[in-house]
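Quick one:
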Amino acid sequence: MNDKINKDTVIGALKKVYDLEIGFDIVSLGMIYGVDIDENNNVEVDMTLTTPACPMSGFLTANAKKAVEEIDGIGDVKINLVFDPPWSPKMISEEVKKALGL
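Output:
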């Protein structure tokens, strides 16, 4: 592999994944807690859901994995669902808060 994948590239890919119930991407909604990339361009993403019982969990995690896997030169991709700290509306970007009237 020639190029090192960076966090901005991974975040950019994740911005293409939308929570269809809310209508915004998972990055802007504050659902991405961490991105780790090793020397072989293997990526591990810690993400959460707006609620542990979210009916979209399978859809969102599968789409997040697929979006990152589409990056040129990417290695293995693992999506970890985490719920600590619990998600709250405070994690939403200012732009989305304004759009939602929060």
